Model the fold of this input.
Amino acid sequence: MAKAWSPDSWRSHPIKQQPTWPDPAELDRALKQIASFPPLVFAGEARSLQSGLAQVAAGNAFLLQAGDCAESFEDFSANNIREKLRVILQMAVVLTYSIGVPVVKVGRLAGQFAKPRSADFERIGDDEIPSFRGHIVNGEGASAAARVPQPERLVQAYHQSAATLNLVRAFTKGGFAALDRVHAWNQEFVASSPAGRRYDQLANEIDRALRFMRATGMDTESNANLREVDVWTSHEALLIDYEEALTRVDTTTGSWYDCSAHMLWIGERTRDLDGAHVEFLRGVGNPVGCKVGPSMTGEQVIDLCEALNPAQIPGRLTLISRMGADRVEECLPPLLRAVKDSGHPVVWTCDPMHGNTYTSASGRKTRHFDDVIREIEGFVRAHRAEGTWPGGIHVELTGEDVTECIGGADELSDADLDHRYETVCDPRLNGRQSLELAFRTAELIRTVAPAS
Ligand code: TRP
Ligand code: MN
Done:
């Protein structure tokens, strides 16, 4: 593929899942403004993440990608960001300690706003109103007025991303993430759950290990490895107008980077080979991901690897499998084989959420914790059978005590969903369910044996 690429070459390709902005001049003004703003991330950071992901591709590290389905303009506070980070750090510690390899931490945050929809319109009573596409586009209220796409929201999304990233950087480098604070991340409502108690035991072991290291004369206070973490940002690159406005030349390498986040991914609905999304992401230097659903064939997945990573750079491409618990062991193995035979170095990660969504008897969109675990189990089994590395998980969660997914040790039921159902889009695991998921995932990685 020697075809020329530029930040706007996607414009001559068919594009799906875009809002119909009522006033093109207003859209243009918003995009010009964003293009004049500073980048949110730097190319060198994207390259650091890519080297971490290269370790995952080689089977020497594990990827934890987690955060909201859709970030909200309303639910935007220090508290909300801290709680999300706290549960991500807890999960990361569990995975690092239990699997014994470095964990690459990537948030679905600081830019995860835009949502693809199954239909452009939604029927409310007798009216057809435009679908909600995330706060970067319109409001979720059930009225035609709320659903009008407003370009000013693109600018607001940029500012919210900047503020979120600022806090993430402060928390991860300013002492909050230091390993001698492992106990402090165990928020009250999580601590009282079985997973929370198990976590406290693991934290005790880490405390002992740190004391041992200090006793040997090691200076644990000043060692940055023990005090700081990298939590990288990512989102679905859906609104390519917005992504283009933040795409800049890196002066050290002369390459283009999409500076809206460290990592970007393409959704299951927009991964057409000739489509605008693949065209755009093939040209940026960031690590990129692509969702891979049950309809994907071995041939298609190779074409995708060729389009997005023709130079076969390790860490550049992450394939995010989302098959559904019932289908993963049937659909994934042929793809694992095809990719392995092609020699493409990819990160394989498991999104156990999006293939397991259903509408509960009470009419809520939900997911069952057992299905989520079953999909991870099928994913790990499939990899073990093929001799490939089950490189990570990609999950939708919040640190809050919400009731959006059914099951888990608390056995949340359909009747509990109304209690705290707060998501603006898909149902998320709460803090307790997330921590339980980390323990169960680590167990699966440890106990499902590789084929001999
Ligand atoms: N810096 C190491 C890492 O990121 C160790 C570490 C420090 C850590 N704080 C952490 C790991 C919090 C997980 C969570 O792996
Ligand atoms: Mn989602």
